[in-house]
Write a structure and sequence with these properties.
The complex is a heterotrimer of chains A (273), B (292) and C (316). By secondary structure, chain A is of the alpha/beta class. Chain A is 36% helix and 25% strand. In chain C, strand 1 and strand 2 form a beta hairpin. Helix content of chain C is 78%, strand content 1%. Chain C contains eleven helices and two strands. Chain C is flat and about 90 Å long. Classes of the chains: A alpha/beta (273), B mainly alpha (292), C mainly alpha (316).
């Protein structure tokens, strides 16, 4: 077992700089296994994720990093023929537990996808969609939510004059920030980001990265990326996945400067992947 | 400032999930209803008709007496009709499809032909009957012959075969064509020896579907004036004839219950033919579907 | 070894050279073939021209016997009466629309509900089994549905509604509805399935239920395809012949009553075709005038369906 689990109690000691006190754990993954049909995609994953941090998940294509993040809000169940074993505790409660509604989980755990996927509606309606389905009908409150969310996603100034135009008129980078705003509108606890900048140009990427830094003050963020520089720039902790296993999970500074595992080193130095 | 109260959201979740469940069953029930109707229809036809369906029924000529009535003339007539429709639609349909996919330039005329074909598919079948009556029965003096009916039906089902042949041709990968051109083959050689063999399963499937539409249609033939009752068999394509749907229509229209049962037996014969044809189509599709 | 190969190579070249002479034949066919194929393609255009020309010419003759005003405004359709014959198409149109409306009332909810079930709720396996069965339902000859309407649906309805006549608008209307349901279900399902998965994921990730995703994301995104499928299906209902000819009756009347015998445009054409109306009589020409009206109705609806699906096509 090569998995390095940094227990939260050790964390404050290990990570002396910046972290004022021991942080709570949002997600605790225990012995998670996942199969697509016969394909064993995730193998014995054990991973604790802290609140108000950015946790990056890196690894070569097909290593299971996207699968893992989609398991955290059970989006993976939209794929037919998926089986899981083990537990994922979100705020102390196993999300696979019978009676735990996926809808309930997903109102607390927002997600941003690889490609921007706004709805074919106006910018306003895109952001208001979540609050509306969750029963908020008051127009005034909706207006406030839309403004707050768009500001939170650093796109308000660009779209405030055309809130009722179709979201498809925005550029790719703007669409992705709109999707982030859409996710903020339901005031989640955690935001999952599945390679959110892979379809964006460098300038849009930079904007999203700055935004992530801003958002971590209020939210816990888990971000999948195949861009190692990005992980190094924005994350507090990094997990390296390979062939469905966690090879190394520790402070980002440490994993990039002084990896313990040979395979992590090989990947980081660009020897494969 | 927080606008969303997650405990409230949680409270509201229950009715939303309940609505989801209720509607899931409503949607499922609607789908089940459509399938149930098919089941009832088949059950009714079989229980009504099975008593009359025997060798004598297939061999018998139409009769005033339901016990002796048979479908021989209509069944043979339907086969004659297939004999005309098959070559005509295959020739015209595949020819049109090859032209549109391989030769036609992307211009207004081509898109006009294309729009025309899709509109033709939406013209009610009875209107084709009026066309056939004027052009084939009267102007060309073919009368209510196999040929007149066959040509009318061919025009009716032409859009079906054109569209499916086009899809089949379009599905042949460009690489195969390029490989053929790369060896110096001409366009027609490429079409004949590379494109057609690859497209033939799709074309045949479409052809069978078109043919099954043609042998199930009644309305245009009523307009052409095909007899509802005929005691002799056609000897050539210029002879008068009748077909299964016409015979069924005739029996259905009779007031006596017994004839309704005879009609049901006739429907069983017709549906059996259609099932056989469709099974062949499914078989061809599964057997020869190539994955490039 | 090397020498052998070159000699082989040369011989193939020679063969090709030899063949080139006979290739003239190919070159000729290269030129003739597209021309022949063009001719086959033109047949479909000629069919349309033939339909329009036939209907126009015979309808024109009809209007030399009967005035256009009478045709469009008279509320009576009594073609067979020698003395008080009247050719007002409104009763036939009313019969047609009544039946089409009943069919739509049956088919639209059931068809759309099935489409939502198949595209949003059903597993892949269920979908793979159910869709072909629906296509079978769509492939059953209409005379079979007519038989079903007359011998099964009408008796049941007469048990429920004693005032219902043997021939009525309700029974064929319902059965046509059943006939066009698979068309709406299948075409709408196609439209819903082509809504990108990413869009559904976006909504699911916000905690939406399947119902909310279907109603607020998928249906709005697929609405043009859905409406087009309904328009096409209603057009099919308007042109449907055998079900109404068998179960609808032959009493044209201008009313909203669905329990009594009616006659649709198509059923009238059938009635005349089966009768002994001689060539050249007013009645003979009247079927073309009625057919032309029917053709215009369905053509407009088909064009509308094409317009909707082109004009409002969503670009994802």
């Amino acid at each position: 077992m090569n998995t390095t689990i940094v227990k939260p109690e050790n964390l404050a000691a290990v990570n002396g700089m910046g972290n004022q006190d021991a942080k709570g754990i949002v997600y605790r993954t225990k012995e998670l296994n996942l199969w697509y049909g016969d394909n064993h995609a995730l193998k014995n994953i054990n991973l604790d994720i802290n609140e108000n941090e950015v946790t990056a998940i890196i690894g070569p294509s097909g290593c299971g990093k996207s699968t893992y993040i989609k398991t955290l809000n059970r989006m993976i169940e939209l794929v037919p023929d998926v089986k899981t074993s083990g537990e994922i505790e979100y705020r102390g409660r196993n999300i696979f537990q019978k009676g735990y509604g996926v809808e309930e989980l997903r109102t607390k755990v927002g997600m941003v996808f690889q490609k921007p996927n706004p709805f074919p509606k106006s910018i306003y309606e895109n952001v208001a969609y979540g609050p509306k389905i969750h029963g908020i009908k008051d127009k005034k409150i909706l207006n406030q939510i839309v403004e707050k969310s768009l500001k939170g996603a650093a796109i308000w100034d660009e779209v405030k004059d055309r809130l009722h135009e179709n979201a498809y008129g925005l550029s790719g980078g703007q669409q992705q920030r709109l999707c982030i705003a859409r996710c903020l509108a339901i005031e989640p606890d955690v935001i999952l980001m599945d390679e959110p900048t892979s379809a964006l140009d460098p300038i849009s990427t930079l904007k999203v990265e700055e935004l992530v830094q801003e958002l971590k003050k209020e939210y816990s963020i888990i971000i999948v990326t195949h861009n190692m520089q990005q992980a190094a720039r924005i994350s507090d902790k990094t997990a390296f996945f390979l062939n469905g296993e966690v090879i190394e999970y520790t402070e980002t500074d440490k994993i990039f400067s002084n990896p313990t595992d040979k395979r992590t080193e090989d990947y980081i130095t660009g020897r494969f992947g | 400032m927080k606008f969303i109260d997650h405990t409230k959201v949680l409270q509201k979740m229950k009715p939303r999930l309940a609505a989801n469940l209720v509607f899931k069953f409503v949607f499922m029930a609607a789908t089940a209803f459509a399938l149930l109707v098919l089941g009832i229809l088949l059950y009714r036809v079989i229980t009504q008709g099975i008593g009359y369906l025997d060798w004598q029924f297939l061999q018998g000529l139409p009769s005033r007496n339901p016990e002796q009535a048979g479908v021989k003339t209509a069944l043979i007539g339907t086969i004659w009709l297939m004999g005309v429709v098959t070559p005509v639609t295959l020739l015209l349909g595949v020819g049109t499809a090859i032209y549109l996919e391989e030769y036609a330039k992307k211009n207004k005329f081509t898109s006009f032909i294309q729009v025309n074909i899709s509109n033709l598919a939406g013209v009610p079948s009875i209107v084709f009957g009026l066309l056939g009556l004027t052009v084939f029965v009267r102007a060309l003096s073919l009368g209510t012959s196999v040929l007149a009916a066959g040509l009318t039906m061919s025009l009716l089902v032409l859009p079906i075969i054109i569209v499916s042949a086009q899809e089949a041709i379009r599905a042949v990968p460009k690489e195969l064509r390029e490989a053929s051109y790369g060896m110096g083959a001409t366009k027609w050689q490429t079409i004949l020896r590379v494109v057609m063999p690859a497209a033939i399963p799709g074309i045949l499937t479409g052809g069978i579907l078109a043919l099954s539409r043609a042998i199930g249609e009644t309305a245009p033939l009523v307009v052409l004036g095909l007899p509802l009752f005929l005691a002799f068999l056609p000897k050539s394509v210029f002879d008068m004839f009748t077909v299964l749907p016409m015979q069924i229509y005739n029996w259905t229209g009779r007031p006596q219950e017994e004839f309704h049962a005879v009609a049901a037996a006739g429907i069983m014969v017709l549906l059996t033919m259609l099932i056989i044809m469709n099974s062949i189509a499914v078989f061809i599709r599964n057997k020869f579907t190539r994955r490039y | 070894m090397a020498i052998q190969e070159t000699s082989k190579h040369v011989s193939i070249k020679e063969l090709i050279e030899k063949k080139k002479q006979s290739k003239n034949k190919y070159i000729r066919s290269e030129k003739i073939v597209p021309f022949i194929l063009l001719l086959t393609a033109i047949i479909s255009v000629l069919t349309t021209i033939g339909i329009v020309a036939t209907l126009l010419a015979e309808t024109f003759t009809f209007f030399t016997h009967v005035s256009i005003t009478e045709f469009f405004t008279s509320q009576k359709w009594y073609p067979f009466s020698e003395t008080q014959g009247s050719f007002g198409i409104l009763p036939l149109i009313s019969g047609t629309l009544k039946v089409a409306l009943i069919a739509a009332i049956v088919a639209v909810p059931i068809g759309l509900a099935s489409a939502v079930f198949l595209s949003e709720y059903a597993s892949d396996r269920t979908r793979r089994i159910v869709k072909p069965i629906l296509e079978v339902l769509a492939g059953i000859p209409t005379i079979v549905y007519g038989f079903f309407a007359l011998t099964f649906v009408t008796p049941i309805l007469r048990d429920i509604i004693p005032a219902l006549e043997i021939f009525n608008a309700l029974s064929p209307g319902i059965v046509i509805g059943i006939m066009i349901t698979p068309m709406i279900a299948s075409l709408s399902e196609d439209a819903m399935s082509s809504v990108p998965k990413a869009m559904r994921e976006g909504a699911y990730a916000l905690g939406a239920t399947k119902l909310e995703v279907a109603m607020k994301i998928v249906i709005p995104a697929a609405i043009s395809g859905i409406i087009a499928s309904i328009v096409l299906a209603v057009s099919r209902a308007i042109g449907e012949t055998m079900i109404v000819a068998v179960a609808g009756g032959s009493t044209p009347n201008l009313s909203w009553d669905v329990t009594s015998s009616i006659q649709t445009m198509t059923a009238y054409i059938v009635q005349v075709s089966q009768g002994d109306a001689g060539y050249g009589t007013t009645i003979y020409y009247s079927i073309y005038a009625v057919g032309f009206t029917l053709f215009i109705f369905t053509l407009l609806m088909n064009l509308l369906a094409q317009f909707i699906s082109k004009r409002f096509r969503e670009e994802y």
